[in-house]
Amino acid sequence: MIVSExxxxxxxxxxxxxxxxxxxxxxxxxxxxxxxxxxxxDSPYVGFEGSRYLMMSGYSYLGLxxxxxxxxxxxxxxxQYGTGAHGVRALAxxxxxxxxxxxxxxxxxGREAAMVFGSGYxxxxxxxxxxxxxxxxxxxxxxxxxxxVDGCQLSGATVTRFRHNDPEHLDRRxxxxxxxxxxxxxxxxxxxxxxxxxxxxxxxxxxxxxxxLLMVDEAHALGVIGATGRGIEEHFGDNTLVDxxxxxxxxxxxxxxxxxxxxxxxxxxxxxxxxxxxxSAALAxxxxxxxxxxxxxxxxxxxxxxxxxxxxxxxxxxxNAAGIDTGTSETAVIPIIAGSDEKAYDLATACRKAGxxxxxxxxxxxxxxxxxxxxxxxxRHSAEDLDVxxxxxxxxxxxxxxxxxxx
Length: 407
Ligand SMILES: Cc1ncc(COP(=O)(O)O)c(C=O)c1O
What we know:
Elements: H1 5-24, E1 38-39, E2 45-48, E3 51-55, H2 68-81, H3 89-93, H4 96-109, E4 113-117, H5 120-131, E5 137-141, H6 146-155, E6 158-162, H7 167-176, E7 183-188, H8 200-210, E8 213-217, H9 232-236, E9 244-248, E10 258-262, H10 264-273, H11 275-278, H12 285-300, H13 303-321, E11 333-339, H14 341-353, E12 356-357, E13 359-361, E14 371-376, H15 383-399
Parallel strand pairs: 3-12, 5-6, 5-7, 7-8, 8-9
Antiparallel strand pairs: 1-2, 2-3, 4-10, 9-10, 11-14, 13-14
Bound molecules: pyridoxal-5'-phosphate (PLP).
């Protein structure tokens, strides 16, 4: 029983999350957060409470999470280097494997150098904090990822938001920006809740007109867009559009970690100034080994990327033809927009009854009128799997009245 004054003062916060969750997750069928799914090694299906479901909300875009080559590389790394990295990178924590991985990231992306962080979150927070500070201005898209927002807030720089994917609004914001400090523009390549792509050539022009640097988060783009999965520059056919490239090793690359790539001088600066790099343990050997092998497989097997692009277009088309709103999606991320938070939960529950996992994303992550299931197509989903998924989504959408009839 909690009685102290400190705990009593904390109680309103503890109650707020309980109240909010109980309004949405009021019976076991409506529970959708923190469910412990057990993945099957060689399929997009997962086990949960004795039943088998088709998982449609995972991030493992390239379908490599259970790949025998990637698993073997993780095991070899553990055999060679052990389970931990023995400290921070600047002291005892650097392994030859980290350097191999960094060289592979730089090579794959056509950059001079790269470095890896413990997570994509840490990569954003650390990079932003090392690039800007008081007196500088950072301009971010309204829908940029939380790790970019947090990095900006911690940095002490002036933070300005511009309208989503709106280069003209960025132009006006840059015109209004005061002072002679650095101006840094940060966008996501592919927006994680909407699946649309940043208008990079136009953003580049605006940045150049104002002498601003352009940083891009490729978390949902690496392995997904561009003919061979090299991300947004390959998508637009110009490898000179981005100044600072950043991404994760936790989505298409099925490990954990984050990376930054750019000129050697930038990486040298970040290695000595990015606080989550300096003051947090190095990437564990198994993660580095798995990431390195996954990059090699991505390089060898671009058909995985083609599959994702073809099949996500086909799924989107099937859903749209039946009257489902998938917003502005043009990549593997496909939102199924339900409306209110309650409706998104109704839909997720109906999907699970139909044997498909589509997890809800609700306010405040998205506006309450735009709550959705966040779906992602991966190379692990066969065309047949996606037909099963589409049938499940449509059945569920019809069951809750989101679409009036089934095709
Ligand atoms: C756009 C974006 N950036 C960064 C991150 C953080 O990456 P990680 O999960 O590897 O920390 C995420 C994760 O969801 C993301 O979606």
